[in-house]
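Researcher: Structure prediction, please.
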Amino acid sequence: MRTTITINDKIYKALRIRAAESGETVSSMVEDAIREQVLEDLYDLQMVRELENEPSIDFKTFVKELKADGLL
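Model: Predicted structure follows.
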């Protein structure tokens, strides 16, 4: 699919240089970066789902426990 995006001129210049040095296309580098970001977001969402049912503790109580344990 073709699309148009706006990229800062200096960032685009750096991207073109890196693409030329690595033998990749700018398009493939942008697509790889987006894919990595999407995968990272999916991982983060999975972690949030796994932790959402864990008990929580407020900050003041947490600090008190750390002090009681001699960690602060």
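Model: The CA atoms of residues 43 and 64 lie 32 Å apart.
Researcher: Thanks, that helps.
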